[in-house]
Structure formats: C-alpha cells, structure tokens
Give the backbone structure.
Amino acid sequence: MTKHVYWAPGRVNLIGEFTDLSGGPVLPAALDLGVHIEAGPAETIALHSRELDGATGLAADGTPLGGETGGWARYVAAVAVELALLGRPAVGLEGEISSTLPIGAGLSSSAALEVAVGLALCEVADFPLEPMELAQAARRAEHRAVGVPCGILDQAASVLGRAGLATLLETGSLAYEYVPLPEEIALVIVDSGVSRRLESSGYGARREELERALAVLAGRDPRELTIAEVDEIAESGVLDPVAARRLRHVVSESERVYEVARLLRDPSPAHLQRLGEAFREGHESLRRDWEATTPELDLLVELAYEHRAIAARMTGGGFGGSIVVLAWANEARALAEAVVTAYGKRGDNPAQAYVCRASDGARRIS
Ligand code: GLA
C-alpha cells in the first residue's frame, strides 16, 4: 500500500466573529499548527492516533463496523458519509493521524481533522473536489457529527490558507481575496486554558437569537445596515433586546472586517494604531452585544495590550478558548511569555501561548 501524508491546518480568525452565521465577511489565517494523516487506500477506514487516543472502525462509506463511534472518530465517520452522498467511491483508508493543534482552544481542531480526512478520502478514491466543495462537505460533517450549526469560517480557512496572507472571505457568495500580513507583525495565540466545546457552548443559542433578528429584516443583508438603523429597529419594539444586541454585533463586526483589511494593506503607524482600536472594539462587541467572552479572555486581552500588543481580541467560537494578538515580530516571544506569566498569577488556569505564522492551506505534502 502506498501511503501519502495529508495536512490540514487549524485557523485563527483575525476578525469577523459570528458574521458567517449571516453570510458576512471573515478574515482568518491558516496556522502552522494542524492535522497530519499518513495513510493509504484500504478496505475499511482504520485510522489510529496516539495523541488523540483511539481508532476508527468504519466501512468505507462511514458506516460503523460494530462498536461505538465516539470522540474524534465521529468526525471521521461524518466526513465519509458526506463524501459518499456526493458520490465518492467506497475506498477505505488506513493509517495514522497526528495533531499539533490544542483541542478546545478555539483554533478549529475539528475542522482541520475533517478537512484532512476529506482530502485523504477523496484522493484514495480518485474523487477530486474543488477546495470549497471540500470545505462545505467538511462543514456539513461537523453538523452531522456533533450537531453544531457552525458557519463555513473554519473549514474554508483550512482549505484556502496561504503563507503570509490572511483570507478575506465573503461567507455568503464565497468570493475571497488575500490580504498580506505585514512582515514585522507576528501572530500570537494565547489559550485561556478554559476549554470550550461548541456542542455545549452557547453557540446554538446565539445563532437562534440572531435568526430572530434576521427574520424581521425581511431579506435585508446585515452588511447594508448602519448601527443607527439597528438602534431604530430595536427602539421600534419589533425586536426583543437580546436579538437586537446580537444583530448590532454582526453589523458592527462586518464593518470592522473591511476596515481591518484596509489597515493591514497599508500598515502605517497611524493605521496600526487604529488596528489596535478596531480589535478592542471587536472584543468589546463580543463581550457586550454577542456575550461570548469570558472573564479569562477579557483579562488576557488587557494583559496583551499592557505588554505592547499592536492588537488583541478574543478569537473563534468564544465561551472559552483563545485570544489572538498581533505583536511586533521581534517582541512576540517576550510578549507571549509575559502574558502567560501575568495570567498565571491572576487565576488557576494555566495559559498556553503559540507564536504562529500564516500558512498554506490543506494539501497532500508527500
Ligand atoms: C466557530 C464556528 C465558525 C464561526 C466562529 C465564530 O468557530 O465554527 O463557523 O461562527 O465560531 O466566528
């Protein structure tokens, strides 16, 4: 059996949180942390993993071969089922999975797993898919595996990533373009140590609250609204205050995505100053209007700014997980260490920091 190595990265979202729930813009980068699969064609899907603990025992179309399909194997099974529905020939996959992504840190470990498995399954069956078709199948697999009504952000970021670039993606039309990250800026991710699972977080509830707001917009796109209009809608009484706050977040956050992309394209000192303010406003909107930050994430953001962050905010699905920091590249390690130490003195959860680079997206690497 010829084995190949497949790779799919996790992602960090620079800005544009929860905007993918209403087709709005996002600005993620793929990370140099992710999932490797070394595997080749087989009768069944038999993947094992030392770090992730466990193995899969599945038919090539994702049907369980007796026993329970729990943990990470659920995602593998769901990807196989989604690809079978698209017509993938039933060829199995045997090999080893490993991951450098922390689980529950909000860096899309499950999306990276889904995309890597999808890539490998497509290749062994000689069933090529366009990158965004693969991302959409992986997203449907997330719904199928754990019932999380997530948007396309994580899976799209994993397939579209490019070294040194962030991806400005319109999650409605799926149009995208790349935004260069200035070389003097490094990405620092700090995991709050308060682990989150989308399945049990308030993610689904937030989505429903936003849906209530979208219903009264009668087809108008949140990207066309101003904050003043959201306030008018809220005051008119057609919308409950909670749904109005969720809508206000999505409207203000979409504006910030376009602004941050413009600022990164022309990173003058004044623009980098503004970038820091925009990230602060984004975090504040997630705290006050979307209500998905935690005291730990709020503290980490404060500590990052105290230690000379250019910009810092919560990233990902919220309710725990990580912050993303844009730091001066030559100060990134010192900032990461100082924030972790200061955070450790303030509470019981140990933080973990990662200095990352924007990296290429999912692909076969050997
Ligand atoms: C999770 C979801 C994404 C997106 C983010 C928040 O990562 O999987 O679709 O909604 O939360 O921006």
Notes: The pocket of alpha-D-galactopyranose is lined by residues 13, 17-18, 20-21, 150-151, 153-154, 316-317 (CB under 6 Å). Residues 241-265 form the longest helix (25 residues). The domain at 182-356 is CATH 3.30.70.890 (Alpha-Beta Plaits).
